[in-house]
Every structure is written in structure tokens, then in C-alpha cells.
Amino acid sequence: MKLRSYMLIGLLLSLLLSTVPVSGHLTNAATPPAVAPVSTLSLSQGVKKTVLDNGLTVLTKEIHTAPVVSVQVWYKVGSRNEGKGESGISHQLEHLMFKGTQERPVQFGRLFSALGSQFNAFTSYDETVYFGTVRRDKLEALLTLEADRMKNSLIGTEQLTSEKRVVISELQGYENSPSYRLNRAVMQAAFPNRAYGLPVGGTKADVEKFTVDQVRNYYQRYYSPENATLVITGDFTTEPTIKAVKETFGKVTPRANKNLGIQEPKKAVSAVPAQKTPIVLKEAGSAALLQAVYPLPDLKHPDVPAIDVMDMILTGGRSSRLYQDLVESGLASAVSGSAAELIEPGWYELNATAAPGQELGKIAQVMQQSLVKLQQQPVTTEELNRAKTQLQASFILGNQDITSQANQLGYNQTIAEDYHFVEKYLAAIAKVTPQDVQRVAKTYLNPAKQTIGFFEPSQANGEQADASGGSSRTSENFSPGQPVDPAELAKYLPPATSSTSNSQQALPEQFTLANGLRVLLLRDRSVPTINLSGQIDAGTVFDGNQKAGLANLTANNLMNGTKTQDALTLAETLEDRGASLEFSASREGVNIGAQGLSADLPILIQTLADVTQNATFPADQLELTRQRVLTSLKVQLDDPQSLGRRAFQQVIYPENHPFHSFATIESLNNITRDDVLRFYREHYRPDTTTIALVGDFEPAKVKALLNQSFGKWQAQGKSPQLNLPPVELPATLTRLNKVIPGKAEAVTYLGYNGISRKDPRYYAALVLNQILGGDTLSSRLGTEVRDRQGLTYGIYSGFAAGVNPGPFLIQMQTDPQDAEKAIASTLALLKQLREQGITQAELNTAKRSISNSYPVDLANPSAVASIILDNDVYGLSPQEIQEFPRQIESVTMADVQKVIQELIKPENVVIVTAGSQPTAQKRS
């Protein structure tokens, strides 16, 4: 299961999902470390389990590392519980749980946002989960809200009608993805008689037919305390918290057994029909895809640890067998594996994306040869230890913050029925032998039980139809409703307890090496991990149109070899330790991201120093990377979101502006190895590099290590400089449509050039944006376009403010038929904002929401590393990490009104819509 990878199977309510990376890893490849059960982070230690009289299971764990708490409610119901004609009803109900209750008939997203909660929800095969993380003084308020909607959710005609449209928009958005469509076909063939064979979100046909009684009965059946687990982690005291739980959730009467009864599907494994020939989808798309599925036992089966070790050996990083056999050979541009071990018997899936010009049949043949080899020969000790270490390290790295720990506890109790499950699982991982791996490979990777599918794109080069453009106004005349009054909303908010928190975020130690490399160190001993964020000023702004993609190609090749280590040795050095080191080029810099256990900091720093100073860019690896980048580009050009953003930015910025430049197939093929070497020599310099480290380390030892590793790195001459030309707003409203055949949903961007992070108007702009579109469930845009009209699954606005001014933009996903109405609604809201401004209550609520949620960000060591890095790169004060909430609180009504007049220009917006052409048929 790659520990908590089940989360990726679920459908997320929010369009923005944060995940903890658990891929790459560390140590000397020649001497892999011995593997023992992980004992440095005991998830269940300190957990108290309480079962209320009404059957609710409560797990509490005090973690006093930050003044925040996480509250999660796990309902043991998912798509596996759905009967005929109910496909997607669990997910539909998840949406309706935000529409209000009898006592609080308001959008719950607004209530959570007003509390400063970072909240979300997801539906998966076996569970539906609601979670929020807040400042500790908001704990009882969250308990009150979650208990209220467990008992009193509004499920009426009005709520269901509007939210059906939202869910259908979400489902149609998934239809844009060829991999989603292939997965759906393969799963239906593999499990024709099981709910697991259908997408978690259901089918459009079933969703359209849901009735109020049907959904309400489902709610009554499954949303009952004896079918739920409440998890609370963070900075609280157990006894008064249990008392508060009894006063809120304890009043919820169990009802499942009194009504329709909780219906558990049969545990029997359906026979999977042998798939003699591949399922073939020939549809509009870009890259060719392969997916193979094999049946597995349920989560509690004793073979599960060995299966997961097998998966790591096959697909766990660059040193894995299938990566070496398929990607390093040039057959595939990507390969991945995932074991879905659930309440009922699940499946193992393998996915591959073909490299340009490669046949899926050949990829399937080589993949099968790799599996046969695994079945016939025991794995090596080195492979076995590496896989075990990766799995165990991923557990620690994936549970650094209280939200993740609550998530893991909820999963353990709900799916495995034991909150101690992970410790037992990791102990079993340590005992897996080569013979165990060989045995499970023989047992479960049986060709007779394989279901395999091919996606063969009908547009081989990822080409789109011609775009139409021009300057025009939308044809619809739209009058938005009145904004939601936060003062009216406030009467539904439970009171917060008095906050006694005087804790203040520690400041990082900052220093500069003799060669100019900037370092920020922040010690955090709460978890035995290291989180590194870094930036090198070598981003795509330095590309130029003729060599667009050069910065990205250079960054992607850094790990392909140095003067002393080849690509495989570098990968094994990291993966033997369960650590990761990755580089990616963004507009203004190359981002460095690294994680590992604290004991592995030396090898992580040494590897980083080696590749930044001594990369050799072997010609064969450069060509393989180029092919992978070309495949990725074709996928982006086939994705309305990626293509729309590219087109939007190219309209905003003139051709002589670096933000206009995007890689093309031609520009990528024009880049030579000499170009890459030149770019590396010119732009990878210590005096344009900044590293932020947060974790469990001794600062003095880290300083010595950094000086030893980077001390000989010297810059030559002056660093490259950019003089960005000024960007004027379009004289009139500008429209552009980018047509991609075969897409069910359109993505629209509206906006223009905005401000930089150091602009004195930034904080007022942030407050304004929170009101306008900072959250799709609580903002003006979300209230009107999503909630009231049901035109979109998600709509957001934001200021992409960096070192240089970036765009102000609004993004939404709609049915192509609804795009025009959604655009007109959005423009009308912008005009309303210009003409009427905001209210004092909106201002106060937005400021509280931003400042109250900030401590949640600071409770995650990985997020803190990114925050202190960004603050330094943007040239902000070292105290910014402490001062940010006060900066928000100091924003006045006059500040926001000034920003509205200066930065909100509905008559000058650029509007880009990417997706299929609207047809004559409108969706009802």
C-alpha cells in the first residue's frame, strides 16, 4: 500500500491537494544498512481509545509541538457499500455534508473558513472522511460543527439539485484524463460484479437519477456514531477534550440499526475473468498508456507486507526493476505501481507511459519478462533491504505533522479495525524474506488473472485544433446575488475557547558561506527527520524562446551522473536510505526538495553538493530525459488546465518577456548537450543558491558539513541578471479559445499581470483575494458560481506574486456549455466588487481566517522549510515568519478599497478557455 497511498484513490473535495512525497532515497549503494522495525516514531504511543455510549469510537493523541489540533471524522462507508443504481452516492453525500444543517442552514465551508480551519474531505472505496486542522482554541467549535452535521445535515431538493451539477462537473473533469478513462475500462473488466470495479465518484447516469429520499436514506443508514471514528491529535488536554466530545457527539443518537441497518458487502472474492487480449481504447489523447491489474487479498491478509516489499522492488524509485527495464531502456517515459489493499480483496496495478515511438505491446512483453524473473529468482539482499527501508522511512516522513498522524490513525482504526496496525505492519515488513517476495510474486502476478489495457491516442503528436481568438465581451448579462453577510454567518459559529497561547515561531539562523551560498537553519526535534527546501536562480526566465525548456532539461538531468557517480549509483545511494532529492525548474528558479531521516543528513548534503557542482550530463541520459520531457509536453498540451494556463500567460506577457516563453517540441529538439553544459556553468552558482533546512540536527555540525561539501564551489564573474520589460494591461477585454478534441470539461482562466511579493499592497491584496476567491466554498466566487448556480466543481482566484510581478488570475472548470455563463457571472462579480466594495464584516472575517490558519502551516516542518526559503528569496525581513499575522491584522478598509480600485480591472481581463467546442446540446 506504500503507506497511506489509499488516499490517492479517493476523490478530494478540494481542487488543491497537498501530499507528502515518499519516493526517492539515501546511503552508500555498496553497503546498504541493516533493516530493523521502525521505533523512532510510534504512532500509537500516547493514543487513548474511548468508546461512547452511542458507539462512537474516539481516538485522542496529545502532541504538544505546535498550538494546533486536527479533528477528523471517519465514516466506514465508501463506494464498496453502494448497490445497483447507487454508484457515486457516497461521494454525492460527501458534497451535501457541506450544504448546512437544520440548526445551521449555511455553507459549512464558510464556517470552517471563518474559524481559520484548513479543511477538506474525501471519499474512497471503504471510507468517507472529513477533516480540519485549526488553532487549538477552535477545537470545541470544530467538534460542535462535526457533531451537528453527523446528525442534522440538510438533504433537500434545493441542495441536491445544485450539488448534482457540481459533482457532474467534477466527474466530467476526470473524463478529460486518458489515464482515468483507461483505468475505468480496465477496472470494470477486472471486477465486473464488484463495486470496486466502478469509479469512486460513480457514473454520471446514476448521479443524475439520485433522489432526495435515496440520498437521505443512505445518510441515515451510514452516518451514525457506531459507524464512525473520531480522531483528535494535537495540542490539547485529554480529559476536558473527552468531556467536550461527550457533550457534542455524545448527544447524537445511534440510528443505523434502528433504520435500514448497515449493509456490509459480501467478502467473497469474485472470480476475475482471464483477459486474453488487451482492452484497447483508441481515443483523442497524447501519450500511449498501459495499465495491468492483478487481484490481491484484503488488507489484513498475512501476505500484505511481502506484497508491498515486492511492489517497492518493482517500482520504488529509479533503482527499481521496472524503472531500469522500461524507463532506462527508453521504452517508457514513466512507470509506477500501487497495491490497493482494502477491507475487501483489492488489486495490484502497474502503469506505464510509452516513450515516443514505442509500442505498448513491446512494453507489456518486457514488463512480463521482469515479473517472470522476479517469480523465478529470489531478490538480492541489497534490493530487499532497500525496499524495506523505503517503506519504513516513508512512514516517518509521511507522519511529520499532526494532520497526517490523525489520518493514519483514522485509517488504521477504520480499515484495519486496529489503531496499532501500522506498527504491526512495519514489524512484519522487517521480517520479509527473499523467499516471501518470490512466493507472493508467483501467487499474485499470475498472467491468467491479469487484466491489461492499452490507451492508443488518436492524435499521435498531441496536436490541438486551431484556436480562435479576438476581443469580445461575453454575450450574457448577469446580475449576481448579494454577497453573504459574515455578520449573519457569525450567529451560526460555535464559540471558541479562550486562547492562552503565547508561543512564537522560532526564527531560523541565517548565514552566508564564503562563496555566497545562503543558508537558513531551523532546528526542530519533534520528529527525527530532515526537510530541505532550496532554490538556485536558474529558472525558465533565462531560457529564451529559441531554447525554451533549457532550464527544465538541465534540472531534470542533474541526477543523471557526476564525475564520480553514475545515475544508478546516485539513485541507490539515496534509495538505500529511504530519502529523496529532487530538482524542478520553475519560472524564477530551480526548486530543490529533499527529505530524509535525520541520521542521513550528511549523505543528503553530500549528494546535493555533488550534483550541483559536478554533474556531467551524459549524452545517452540526456536523450532519454529529452524523450520523457517531450512526452510530458504532449500530455500538457492535451490537458485543458495546462494548455489554458500556457495560452493565458502568453496573451498577458509580450514575446520579449521571459514569462511568455514555454517549451515546444521544436525548441526542445533544438537544445544540444553544449547548451545544457553552458547553462549549467553560467547559472548554477553558489551566490545564486539558497538552502533552508528544518529538522532534527546539530547546527554546528551542519555548518561544518556545509562548508566541507560546498566550500570549493566558486562562482565565476557576475551572476546573470534579468531586466524584465514593463507589462501593460490589455486595452480591452480579450478572449481566446483553445480547442482540444474529446474533452468533457473546459477550463477557463481570467486575469492579467499583477504584483510582486514585495509590493506594499500585497497583504491587502491577500485579504481581498480571500473574500473574492481564496476558497471555493467560502468566497464570493464560490458562493455564486459554484454554490448557487452549480456551474463549476471549483473556482479560485489568486495573486501569483513572486520576486517579479506574476499574474492575478481566476481559474474555473465547467461544462463547455456552461463556460459562457460562468464567465459572465465572474465578470459581474468583479464589477460588483469595483462598484460596491466590501463590508467591514467581510474584512474582519477574511483577516481572522488568514491569521488563524497560519499556525497550521507552521505545524508542518516541510511547510516551514518552504516558508522560510520563500521569505528569503523574496527579499523579505528575517522576522517575516513571525510578523505575517500582524501584517494581515493591520490591513484596513482603506487599504482594501485602494487595492480594489488599482488591481481589479474587469474591463481589461484576458479570458482563455481550453477544452472542446460547445455543442448544440445543453446539459440539463
UniProtKB/TrEMBL annotation:
<feature type="signal peptide">
    <location>
        <begin position="1"/>
        <end position="23"/>
    </location>
</feature>
<feature type="domain" description="Peptidase M16 C-terminal">
    <location>
        <begin position="670"/>
        <end position="849"/>
    </location>
</feature>
<dbReference type="InterPro" id="IPR011249">
    <property type="entry name" value="Metalloenz_LuxS/M16"/>
</dbReference>
<dbReference type="InterPro" id="IPR011765">
    <property type="entry name" value="Pept_M16_N"/>
</dbReference>
<feature type="domain" description="Peptidase M16 N-terminal">
    <location>
        <begin position="518"/>
        <end position="641"/>
    </location>
</feature>
<feature type="domain" description="Peptidase M16 N-terminal">
    <location>
        <begin position="58"/>
        <end position="203"/>
    </location>
</feature>
<feature type="domain" description="Peptidase M16 C-terminal">
    <location>
        <begin position="209"/>
        <end position="391"/>
    </location>
</feature>
<dbReference type="InterPro" id="IPR007863">
    <property type="entry name" value="Peptidase_M16_C"/>
</dbReference>
<feature type="region of interest" description="Disordered">
    <location>
        <begin position="455"/>
        <end position="506"/>
    </location>
</feature>
<keyword id="KW-0732">Signal</keyword>
<feature type="compositionally biased region" description="Polar residues">
    <location>
        <begin position="469"/>
        <end position="480"/>
    </location>
</feature>
<feature type="compositionally biased region" description="Polar residues">
    <location>
        <begin position="496"/>
        <end position="506"/>
    </location>
</feature>
<protein>
    <submittedName>
        <fullName>Insulinase family protein</fullName>
    </submittedName>
</protein>
<comment type="similarity">
    <text>Belongs to the peptidase M16 family.</text>
</comment>
<dbReference type="InterPro" id="IPR050361">
    <property type="entry name" value="MPP/UQCRC_Complex"/>
</dbReference>
<dbReference type="Pfam" id="PF00675">
    <property type="entry name" value="Peptidase_M16"/>
</dbReference>
<dbReference type="Pfam" id="PF05193">
    <property type="entry name" value="Peptidase_M16_C"/>
</dbReference>
